[in-house]
Fold each of these.
Amino acid sequence: MPIAAAEYDYVVVGAGPAGCLLANRLSANPAHRVLLLEAGGRDNYPWIHIPVGYLFCIGNPRTDWCFKTEAQEGLQGRALSYPRGKVLGGCSSINGMIYMRGQAQDYDGWAAQGNPGWAWKDVLPLFKQSENHFAGGSQFHSDGGEWRVEQQRLHWPILDAFRDAAAQSGIAPISDFNTGDNEGCGYFQVNQKAGVRWNAAKAFLKPIRQRPNLTVLTDVEVDRVVLENGRACNVLGRQNGQQMSCKARKEIVLCAGSVGSPGILQRSGIGPSNVLKPLGIDVVHELPGVGGNLQDHLQLRLIYKLENARTLNQIAGTVWGKMGMGLRYLYDRSGPLSMAPSQLGAFARSGPEQASANLQYHVQPLSLERFGEPLHAFPAFTASVCDLRPQSRGRIDIRSANPADAPLIRPNYLSHPEDLRVAADAIRLTRRIVAAPALSQFKPVEYLPGDSLQTEEQLHEAAARIGTTIFHPVGTCRMGCDKDAVVDAQLRVHGVPGLRIADASVMPRITSGNTCSPTLMIAEKAAQLILSPNTRSLAPQRETVNAI
């Protein structure tokens, strides 16, 4: 039998970006007893906080779930690593630290799909509410929140040259990607404070750790949600080998992400019967959309060998170079150790038929075969480009009723012909940028995928061979009012009172950029909806699906 725990008003499952913010907001009222459950451990691993330490956090079971996809037909049968944060702060403790909201049309599109209250005009104040921007308050930014945004602390001549080459190719310089239209090229702004990673645990939990009405438990792997008379009331999990039960008087909020949240629902008997019944799980409430609608940004990493250039490949390739990097970071928290994984960004259109930027570049003064392997011995840079609005859709489902079993992750990359077409156009655009005069002094030569590949079919093959995730899975508990939607516009799980979801899994369509800060915005919206009882959704009512 599970060990009975104290009752709480709110139980929040998952201490990633969304869970940290939501626990902060819900516990601001001392009358609310709030429990935050995290499956990972504390964020006291030193490499979490040194920005370049993401190299030692991704693929590390101390901080990463180390998931893998199933073999992907669209990627020549390759299975990809699928990093997800397993630590306080979640993915904000291991990600690229890039502050990116996406485009205004992303959110206007959500609202147009039957989700009132989610248009750009509605969500911009929510972004600003949590933001602490280096430039201070303005029409688009705020300095009053907890989520620190700073400029990067170093520049690279090769990246400056790429920015100039982009301008020569029709992609104008831009100083701020976060005003609703991110088309252009410039250095990313990052979630750092004085050269140190600023994760969600620092931003939203550390300042309130003394609140007596907030309990934070780590190393608790949640199994399922229990319903009584159709209402979600209890969370069952396991900590240090012991079963535990946590009762919620008001609401349970899942913030376990696009992998974790659908898994908890499915183990609870909430989901598609054709997935649950073969696993021996009783269907408590049929919701066919749980686990579906998976979207992710697939990046194509084009690598160029250089001459007359100094890149991280050379600096980090010697003992003296590594010592210099360490001393510089100790001195003023600058230099290569303060680097986000990607420093320069660009948003561009793959072709004239695109109404807005549909490609994102992450440009890096380094190269390697794949994450976790050593840097190349030759000077090089990487221009990684992804399709911001993929048409391919996949699924994430549980493999068994045992929460310890890794899920089945099937993104179905490049399964839609439009994604293949955009991938080929993206490679062509990258080649045009690299051929611009601003980069000629460095004599770039395409190392990957190789400039001998020119035809449409060859470029499709190249995309399948070099494509990899950029770690932005969303959509597996989609918001909407149709039969396949999982939550409504107030983030309430359809047909299950007392249960909400507030994380990237509720996105109807993926945002046009990095997904961490949009996830924080979703949690800010959830707090507003939970704490403002007069807030009402104007969304059309979906058809009721009877419980089984």
Amino acid sequence: MTIEQDLDRARHLAFAADEGAAKDLLLSLMPRIEEADRDDLMLEVYAQLGEIYLVRTAYDGVTECLTRMRDCLGHYIAMPARDNQIERMILRYRRRALFLQTGFAAAHGDHDSAALTLHELTDDGEPDPDLRAEHAYLITHARILCAVALCDDDLHVQSLPLWQEVLDVISAPGDGTLFSDALLVLGGTGYGRFCVETGRLTEAEPWLRRAGARARSRTWGLATARTQLERATAAWAAGNRPLAQDLVHEAYPAIAEHARAHDVSRCWLYFGLLSISVGAYDDADERLSHAERHWRELGRPLHIHRILLQRSWVDIFRGDFAAAAERVSAARELLDGWPRHSWLQYARLDDHLGSLLRAEALADPAAAGDTFARAAELKIPAALAVDSVRYTLADADARMRWATHVSARMLAGAFAVAWEWGNTELLSELIECHCARGTFTVPDGGTAAWADTATAAVPVDEADEYALVASGHGSTGTGSLTRLGALPPLRMEPGGAPVLSRYRDLAVTRYGRQLTADDGEWSTWP
């Protein structure tokens, strides 16, 4: 085989997720390329190696490849006279370096830098007919990497414009090439996961099936397994645990074989959830510990934060409330140190701590009164703040998704703690507030609180600010009491204070969101 044919074979191996064989082949070509004195082929080797290292999270290798590529390109850029062949080589591998730099920044959560290099890649150089297809591929692939990285940091709103650009490409008929199929598989899988995490389950399924079918036609085993894993998350979110179990068990062998730590961790997470669902708590704790270990190896604080909360549910079910509290405290420390944390994450954390206190109160009736009060001070403000998000979403379907996948569970927990506390005054205020607000329903299947931490839905239909909570005047219909936005203060009786005023004040203090409109109060008595 020629060197060029071997380089093409290495590319096929990498797309098939056989990175070890691809790497060995590329390294074996270096002596032949040096002997031939072909810097263009050496640049191709480093570009492909950089992509392999990026996929396998071997970031030191990415840095080394980028350094060698830039050193080589710098030599040619400094030449006083360059022919067209050299100009094309510089243009091509400058773009390949920009792609690697974009993926590297995105993988490290440096989303601003990733956006800058993506823009530079998109606008790089004059059009070259011979390089147009490769340039388009690099741009779309880089957008996928940036969008996936944003979703990993719960920045789904910021990822939406990228996904729209990706969909414009992968929705069109492909040309049947390796690169076109790779974009469909990567983009379809990534966008399917985005849809699951934002509650768009019906939209996720077709993309995941299409990506899976294309991966199977290429005999890309890992890519096929990854689509099955995302379909398992969708099934879990929909409450279909038998299907989720079947899919994650089908996906795991290929994922484990290729040792992708992030996907391995996600498999172990669902194995743990399945064990919790049948009361096998020792087995669940072991499985969740495997997920935590892999995420710690990857250095992903946000995922470690979530798995600690999940493991604390196992402690709660065992009645080991001290251990659960330690895990929740450790999870809060990770969130405090996470530079891109949001008020929504803290609201969910407070709600979870309230659930821990609620379980402790139910287990110890003697101290239940004070404990229920502390639980209510955590769960009710968090529920009020989170539920307010849906009244900032103009689209009815978006409001429904938010209510179904996020606020319903938290509101149900707020009502439950007031009921179990025996605080009829608080319960009546919650009912009064909710009747003025509208209604909520718990998802079919009665998904338990511990199950919802696996796929956390986020708002994506309000692009101006993440989870913006409306305050001030809302939108009202003519002659109608229906309004979109924060409610004014509600007073149930002439001599009483506005309902839930203390809990609303706590929500403002903790989460920085104004939950009450500034206009005149509503009197709710006849």
Amino acid sequence: MENRFGIKDLFLFLLIGALLVIVALAMWQFDRQFSEIRNIKQQNTELTADLTRVKTAVAGIADTLDDIKKRPVVVGPAQGTAGTQQAVAPAATPTADAFTRLKEAEKQPGFARGDWLIDNFATKIGKLTPLVSSDVYQTWVEYQVMEGLAVRDPDTLEYVPRLARNWTISEDGLTMTFTLRRGVSFSDGAPMTADDVVFTLDWVRNPAVNADRVRSYLTKLTSVKKIDDLTVEFKFSEYYYLNFGTIVDLTIMPKHFYGKFTPDQFNEKTGLLMGTGPYRLENPETWSPGERVVLLRNPRYWGTPPTFNRIVFNEIEGENTEMVRFGNQELDLIRCVPAQFEKLRNDPRIMAFSNAVSYDNMYGGYTYVAWNQMLTKDGKETPTPFADKRVRQAMTMLLDRERILSEIYLGYGSVASGPFGPKSKQYNPAIKAWPHSPDEAKKLLAEAGYIDRNGDGIVESDKGVPLKFKLTYPSGNESTEKVVLFMKDNFTRGGVVMEPDRVDWPVLVQKLNQTDFEAVTLGWSSTPESDPYQVFHSSQITGQGDNRTHYINKELDKLIEQARGTVKTDDRMKLWQKVHAILHEDQPYTFLFNRKALRLFNNRIQNIKPAAIGLNFEYLNGDMFPWYVPAAQQKYKD
């Protein structure tokens, strides 16, 4: 049989060749168009940024001219002693602001903008919507997307201007007037005005909004009034040492964006996040749990441009997995438990590209076990064994906290005796942490009616009900698992049965909101001068308050209220120390540890320095990143 290449075959061959040429040309054209679109997008971004810089410069000149005309006197919290007040006569242009450390970084020889910061939550988060989330990780994100009127300087702890350029406070501390910056816009381009500030405060104070936690700090606020587009007046019924801090720390919400939702819709939405900040979500409405959180540089940002093009938050759970990812340089920093910290900093391969730091973090707070005193089932409230103070004291004395600190946390911290850190002026030095004393604990349990009645090693009530409970805790942390097992063993030796109850973080948040737990171990972050009202005042049992243990002590309530209204710092500190003593005696929580912050950073991240708050950048402080990556070491491109 003879093979022949005919005219039909030639025609088919030419047709296929022509199609291939057309496809190749189409691909080339597509690549060219994609490149052009990318260039246009980049040019638009640069143009937007240029216009923003021009607008900001013009606004700054106008603000300066106004300052020269008015020469206002600013009265703010006394510098270095939070909560008292002193008069400060500022220059027309403040000598310090939210960008001081960033501007100092810009002067360094290797400074460059660009690259990404790859961070990690180490757990799954449920919401990015402000106010309604109780998740500390949500706050990390919020403070990069949204801004307040002022922010604490990381070293002096003084409040310095952010969205407000100055403020005045009346002599009695009950009237505060803020002058806003010109030229500030939200990330969608809409201008920020006094209307947005008033809307924010009205929204927070709306009882239909699940913002009880924030509202608890605004009980003395009586009115918020727009004087003009750039001036807002706040009036208070009584002095409260956090009146000023609460107002300036609140992130300002765009009325045109959040106002289109009802309170019920707002409460349920998981990803509503828009503000004036240096970063933005690509779509401020559509984020949902399970998605990686990616923050993009805001080209319309009114202030000094941020250093990183993106901040990326992963949700990598498990210490070992996190270590592997950091070791592969897929994460730029890792927040370590002590065993991780020791292992990594003694690994030459890791330290070849890393810097290790250990420090006291003013926002670090304390860890605890909270004892729920009242369970609600089928609408009926039933006291738990933990309603008896003697039982709570016994539970604390059954725990060998010194040994946990030594063996699991390798001594990086101290045993806590209350809600205030040892370096805080609120701390009562006369209070000593409850000792590890199983014998004394058993005596207290016996006084409360719990003894081993049948010789099985478990203590029972006079009705024969064994002292047994579930300890709820978040999944994904190997050190917490070790601590929980250690606790279980300690309680067993005292005749108490503890059942570990490990749950994912979103489920745990729901359990907390519904007070659906018997005992829970977690941690609270802190502030330079913290207010225990929302956690331990009896008024915070209902609604969305944080007194989830149903703890009531009327003497403590009065002391907290008195301290909140005390102007003189020294007098207020004496009251806080009495609060410390009562909480130590009552043990609504077993206060576990004040732990050091342990971090490893990829050494391509430069300008990480110590500061009074901990480091020169802490997410919970809400300031600007002064960290950067030199151009030669940048690895991520947009």
